[in-house]
Every structure is written in C-alpha cells, then in structure tokens.
Amino acid sequence: MRGFPPIQLFLLCLAFIVLAVPLSHLTGNISNAKVVQVAAKEAKSMIALLRLRFAHKPSTLSLKIADKELITSADASPLELHAVLPSPQDGVDVFLSATWPENTPDTALTLEIEPDGLEARSETRWSSAGSLDEVITFSWK
User: What is the pTM of this model?
Assistant: First the structure.
C-alpha cells in the first residue's frame, strides 16, 4: 500500500515547523540575555606618604618610583615626602640605591609607604660592603 502523497507532504511540513520554532528561538538574532560588559581596570594613581629611615647617613641615595626620581640626597633620618603612586592595587616597584662612606658597618634602610585609604607597608633592607641596590615591591590585595 502506498500512502497519499499530499498527506505525507503535509505531515513532513508540520514536523519541520514543529522543530523550526524552538530552533529559531535558540539561534535567532533576538536575545533575551543581558549583555554583561567587563569593566576595564582603570589605572588610578594615589597619593602616598613615603618614610625612609636609616641608622648611618648614606653618602649617596636614590629612590625611584615609575622612573621618577623622588629622593636624591639624605639629610636626616627619617625622610618624609608625599608622592603619587601609579595604581597601588597592582603593586608598586620602588628602586632604592645607596652608598655609604668607607668603614661604615653594614646598616639598614627601612622604607615605609602609606597610600591614602590603604594600610601602611614597610620593608627593611641591609647594606652589604657599603652599598645597597634593591628593587622593593609593595602590594595591597
């Protein structure tokens, strides 16, 4: 027995329509989902108080943050100054270099950074053979 072709064609079209409606909702251009935009981190700079302490006065001293020279000479301990830190949330690299006169014993330099609204961080480094050349990384999480 053979079927009636118009009825078979009608059933085939009906099956296609039944499947096409959900597929069009899944793959269509209209979207009910909310678009989530990822906010780019803004590099916010922040003012901070820097405090440098030492036991013996260095003959040369250099303190740099982001290739900007902040301290070039040491008068007395502690040295205090205000500086602009580039995005302290990502961490701050401080380049510290110092030399002492001959016959000066190994001595310590303590650097303290206190950004506005964040906790103070302090690091101490010891000189060796009358000189110090360090990169100190401060981070706040």
Answer: 0.62
